Amino acid sequence: MYRLPVFEDFIRKSKNWKEVYEEENNKNKKTIIILVSDDRTKSEYGTASRIKEYCDNNDITCYKVITDYAFAIKSPKEEKDKLIIHDYNGEDESISLNTPDIICIVRGGILQNRTGEKLLEIIEDSEIECINNIKVIKEVSDKFSSHMKMKQNEIPTLKTAYVPMMESIDVALDFIDTEFPIIIKVNNGAAGIGVMKADKYEDYVSIAQSMINLDTDIIIQRFVPHNFDIRIIILDGKAIASTKRIKSEHDFRTNLHQGGTSKPYKATPHEIEIAEKVANLFDTKYCGVDLINDGKNTYVLEVNSSPGSESEFYDLENGEVIDGNKVVEKFINYIIS
Known about the structure:
Largest sheet: 7 strands, antiparallel
Oligomer: single chain
CATH topology of the largest domain: Rossmann fold
Distance between the termini: 46 Å
CATH class of the largest domain: Alpha Beta
């Protein structure tokens, strides 16, 4: 019996059990920051908003960092594992981050202005895990360079030519060796912006002249008649979901941002093999790989380092139809585990 007071004194001097539990529970807990440009925060249905909502509903600390306003300055006086992002939300508020516990999700458009790129450089320099990093984003955003890398690795892509100047338009056209119409793309465009169709030679010359005079890099490709293309979502090298993106009646583009629609689509083993090979080639942690079929062969159109979640998908792991919220859930649960 005399031992009981000693035990009670030990308990009183020990941490409260609830504090001990919370400390253990939070020890390896991740905080997520989502880098977005200002216009991306306006839609409550966008992927960044879906991520934020899922995190808020599941007790995961999450911040949207608006790169049009936010800035971070690392100084020797700061602690090694600390990073402060100032005015992260455009409302003059700052967040102090414990860098080993942070995962940074980079959404589209971040590298289109210097402030976004520099902020991401500072975040990477702080050894924060970024999905995806600057190297990956730049590599897949450059349509011609990514085409060349896939070609060198025997991944099927549409024949593509770079058009740097007006003197090269005929040589480029001869190289892709196809009849009109052809596709003209801004080399670093996204969401279908800067993708044009030239139905005849005069259209090609006019478009090329306009783009080159604006000092805009363009490429040309063979046009594949189609009603849809395929997007496969890859997470850490593995295909997890796929969808069919269907063009509208008034546009040849299938991008949802350009009026296209989507339906769940079960990707074939061959399509999955190609998409996973592409994702691993570019060392992406999370991406969408877009494919098109000309009736005989399947080709890679491009790689998107920040795929959207507005579609309905086929869950390639569980064999069921899922919405974009479920894709976001799969993504978040995987990266914080």
